[in-house]
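On to our target:
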Amino acid sequence: MTADRKRELRADRKRHTVQRLSYGERLQELAIRIIRLGKALPRDFVGCHVAKQVLRSGTSAGANYCEAQGAESRADFAHKMQVVVKEPRETLFWVQTCKRAKLVRPRMLDGLAKEVNELIVIGVSSAVTAKSNQRKREK
C-alpha cells in the first residue's frame, strides 16, 4: 500500500470520528469506499462480476436517497426509503462475499460491513417512521 493511500485511509477514518455525517453524506462516503473496492478487485472474470454487482448496489443507495428527498408525498417518500434500504442489504452481501472469497486484502474491508449494517438500521428506522407517519395522516 502506498503512503498516499495510507494517508487517504487515515483521513477517511478521521472524518467519520471527528464529525457527525448526515445519512446522505454517509451514503456518499459508502459509495466512495465501494468505488475504491471495485478498483481493487481482481481484473479476472470473477473480480469483474463482483465489481459490477457491488458498484451497482453500493453506489445507488445514495442516489436513491437523494431521490427520496424530492418525494412528492409522504407515501412516495416511504416507498423510496424502502428502496434505499434494499441496496445496502445487497452491498453487504457482496462485501461479505469479497471477504470470504479473499478477493481483496482484509484491511480494505475493515469496518465496511459495520458501516453498511449501520446504514441499513438507519434506513429501516427512517422507512418505518415514514410509513407510520403516513398511516397517521390517513386516519
